[in-house]
Design a protein that fits this description.
Length: 272
């Protein structure tokens, strides 16, 4: 679901990264599903479904009387999502290969939701408008996006984490079409013809040694390293990526630091 030439969601490493990232975002995603009113019996469209993690949470929310359709432009992502759904016994989920400008014709849906979709759009409002077009009047449109233009932080400051995260941030700002869309959700929804959305603005305090958030960050850093080098965004003080996680943990323990992620925006609106 990306129009960025620098994003390759179908690769093995990226599919692995997306599944680990999904574990980090499960709590935020469940809250968006709950707060937006997605529930039993609804028919929901998952935009940019990737390996299927959001669709599986939706399947639990809508129950046996509801259904979920996940769409993604990457065939390998859809194939993996189908395998995982079959293995987990999700009978109310289907996955389809579709670009974001050719959404399923079997509309309308009761709700459409996307996670980390708008950051890849040159025109986020147009994507929201396309999502709203396949939702029935009175249905819900929702998106969860990272505020990539803003930093997380640690107290006391972890210099190594700051250098590594800064390298990733500079790359994201250079490579993605809309890295700051989390800070523009209200005008984007309204430009798309929807009412002003409700917005949650949240950060997460990760755990300590071995935390899944750190594992996800290290995999992100290593996965994007070739592109970060191409874009010239790598801070040389970061050093060997293979030892980066252990060195960040050591610094955090030595300083007894607590870290906070950058913010995430969850926005939803009811279609008139």
């Amino acid at each position: 679901m990306s129009d960025s030439p620098h994003y390759t969601p179908g690769s093995d490493s990226e599919l692995e990264r997306l599944q680990l990232q999904a574990r980090c975002l499960e709590g935020l995603t469940r809250r968006l599903i709950r707060e937006s009113g997605i529930g039993a019996g609804m028919r929901v469209l998952d935009l940019g479904c990737g390996p299927g993690d959001v669709a599986f949470l939706l399947a639990e929310a809508v129950g046996a009387s509801g259904s979920v359709v996940g769409v993604d432009r990457e065939e390998r992502s859809v194939a993996l999502a189908r395998r995982r759904a079959a293995e987990a016994g999700y009978g109310n989920v289907a996955f389809k290969v579709a670009a974001d400008d050719s959404l399923p014709a079997d509309a309308p849906f009761d709700a459409a939701i996307g996670r980390f979709v708008l950051i890849h759009q040159r025109d986020p409002a147009a994507m929201i408008r396309r999502a709203a077009a396949v939702v029935r009047p009175g249905g819900m449109v929702a998106f969860l996006e990272p505020a990539l233009h803003l930093d997380g932080h640690s107290l006391p400051e972890l210099e190594l984490m700051r250098a590594a995260a800064g390298s990733v941030k500079r790359f994201m700002l250079a490579a993605l079409p809309s890295p700051d869309v989390a800070g523009r959700m209200i005008p984007c929804f309204m430009e798309a013809g929807l009412p002003e959305p409700k917005v949650l603005w949240e950060s997460v305090v990760p755990g300590s040694k071995g935390d899944v958030w750190l594992r996800a960050f290290i995999l992100t850093y290593k996965s994007f390293l070739p592109l970060m080098q191409k874009f010239g965004t790598v801070d040389p003080s970061v050093g060997d990526p293979d030892t980066l996680g252990a060195r960040i943990i050591a610094e955090a323990i030595a300083k007894r630091a607590q870290s906070v992620t950058g913010p995430f925006a969850s926005a939803w609106a009811i279609k008139g």
